[in-house]
């Protein structure tokens, strides 16, 4: 019973298990790696020579960390209520996202529309390309060798493991993000959500539905 | 338009996936000119290359092992990797 042990020698041990039964994370007492030292050296030089300030670097980290799937959800929800916006997004997803107010930097974005006949799913077999400038950091599984290699070989089996069973007659389109473009899937609007406001609809759009491994869901 | 991905195996920073080399697909759309990562990865400068999205039938990539032959894969391929069929 990991949550019910009574063998603590003292109250502030940093080895073994926490009072709730979970292992402590080891302190990072190891030496810096080559690239960690390189990053610190480069950052300090940029500051010392007056190219950037520490505050600017921190502000950029904050900006990256503040990006989340909620941004993409707002984009998708607007396509469900505004056909003109949807047409603009399918023509140039980067420009339409910027026009909506999202700072996505120099990212080149393509929107992929799911229909009754076509289901789109995105993978990067070579590394982990992902529309970070709109959706934030990718989930860990997106970077795994299993997802990256299997999605181009057996996408239906992979999708079924995510709980998504597609009809045999529906075409699966796997998009391998090999070079300069990034992708967002536009899932079809669920019938049960018809008539809701754009803001309410955004809560239905999940991160996984924008990668193509899930469908929109009613908010819990 | 039908194209074949060149079956070349040069060393270096190549963004053409191995599983697509030698395979035949259809041009889905032309995206525009981009820096060539095979050069920029080594701080070389050269002409920009056209980037093209190519659509492949699963049956044309995996043969009889394909889950469903009429499903497709689309990928971005630099034009210097394409040859006419």
Automatic annotation (TrEMBL), chain B:
<feature type="domain" description="Nitrile hydratase beta subunit">
    <location>
        <begin position="2"/>
        <end position="84"/>
    </location>
</feature>
<dbReference type="InterPro" id="IPR024690">
    <property type="entry name" value="CN_hydtase_beta_dom_C"/>
</dbReference>
<protein>
    <recommendedName>
        <fullName>Nitrile hydratase beta subunit domain-containing protein</fullName>
    </recommendedName>
</protein>
<dbReference type="Pfam" id="PF02211">
    <property type="entry name" value="NHase_beta_C"/>
</dbReference>
<dbReference type="InterPro" id="IPR008990">
    <property type="entry name" value="Elect_transpt_acc-like_dom_sf"/>
</dbReference>
